[in-house]
Amino acid sequence: MKLSSLLIAVAAGSAMAVPVQEKKRASPFQWIGTNEAGAEFGEDTIPGNYGTEFIFPDVSTISTLIDHGMNTFRIQFKMERLAPDMTGAWVDGYLQNLTTVVNAVTDAGSYAILDPHNYGRFNNEIITDTAGFQTFWKNLAGEFKGNNLVIFDTNNEYNTMDQELVLNLNQAAIDGIRAAGATEQYIFVEGNQWSGAWSWVDVNDNMKALTDPQDKIVYEMHQYLDSDSSGTNEACVSGTIGVERITEATQWLKDNGKVGILGEFAGANNDVCRTAVSGMLEYLANNTDVWQGAVWWAAGPWWADYMFNMEPPTGPAYTGMLDILEPYLG
Ligand SMILES: *[C@@H]1O[C@H](CO)[C@@H](O)[C@H](O)[C@H]1NC(C)=O
Ligand SMILES: *[C@@H]1O[C@H](CO)[C@@H](O)[C@H](O)[C@H]1NC(C)=O
């Protein structure tokens, strides 16, 4: 329920208004929101130029989405643009611009997920230097350790990599983050094969071995609803495909005492996808013992008429799909 409708309900139903600070979010989820793409764009040109190859999310449209009841923004960026040597110094302007977006989100009381959108790679090579990766994360977590609304996402969509390496990179990230003194923040881990929920149990069972002294690991999975789960086709397989594709992973979370988040999901604005997305969200909300949220793919200033574009005011998903998310917003 939105604050405005809550106040109307209170005004109609009783003499005493509920103070704003006592309002509980109506969302069943701890985290509900959208990805914020742009700073990872133009990845074939590294570092590339601000305004030509890449852009940062717009804090004013984020504010509009917060007004709609979103409380979580997963912010894409490229590791190479931030730290050209991975373990070395920052590019200050890029860190500054990233921090501006993070602070705008968290100053509003929402969560900012830092998403190195690197697919387990650095300069197009699979990252095998787990110690270097740990240092990268120790350095980055050090910048944000004072902000408990920041969430660290170890890497976007590891894929076609050695399975043990994916486990070790995630553990290295966790160890680096905690070594930085960032002890309060959640850490989102991702699996191999694009972290797909539909293949999670077959591919990523070894990930249950990850450990965190703070016990704040959240398993981030992604799920699209077209035939190959890539999110590139506007046709969804069926109205029930969303539920079908996350059922096994849900059981895996329950069986192993883990919690998860759907860190990317979407569907185009057509009847089958609307039914499929809405069914999947309902299923997540029916299983909040293990599913703690969902994050739409994607908002961002440069998506134009992209079918999943959640950017206000004219993105096709903002104008056409927000009503499907509405029951789950705060
Ligand atoms: C940071 O953003 C400013 C605009 O606010 C821009 O002029 C600058 O080029 C950006 N730098 C980087 C490295 O993104
Ligand atoms: C969610 O739970 C309700 C109540 O038990 C049930 O009627 C509904 O079918 C469930 N939805 C999904 C998608 O599992």
UniProtKB/TrEMBL annotation:
Catalyses: Endohydrolysis of (1->4)-beta-D-glucosidic linkages in cellulose, lichenin and cereal beta-D-glucans
Q: What region holds the Glycoside hydrolase family domain?
A: 35-299
Q: Which family does it belong to?
A: Belongs to the glycosyl hydrolase 5 (cellulase A) family.
Classify the source by domain of life.
Eukaryota
Under Pfam families, the record lists:
Cellulase
What is one GO cellular-component annotation here?
Answer: extracellular region
* Gene Ontology terms: biological process: cellulose catabolic process
Transmembrane as UniProt keyword: no
Which InterPro entries does the entry mention? GH, Glyco_hydro_5
Where would one find the signal peptide in this protein?
1-17
The task this protein performs is described as: Has endoglucanase activity on substrates containing beta-1,4 glycosidic bonds, like in carboxymethylcellulose (CMC), hydroxyethylcellulose (HEC) and beta-glucan. Involved in the degradation of complex natural cellulosic substrates.
Name under which the protein is recorded:
cellulase
Which EC class, in a word?
Answer: hydrolase
MF term (GO), any = cellulase activity
Q: Could you tell me where this protein is found in the cell?
A: Secreted
Q: Which UniProt keywords apply?
A: Carbohydrate metabolism, Cellulose degradation, Glycoprotein, Glycosidase, Hydrolase, Polysaccharide degradation, Secreted, Signal
EC number of this enzyme? 3.2.1.4
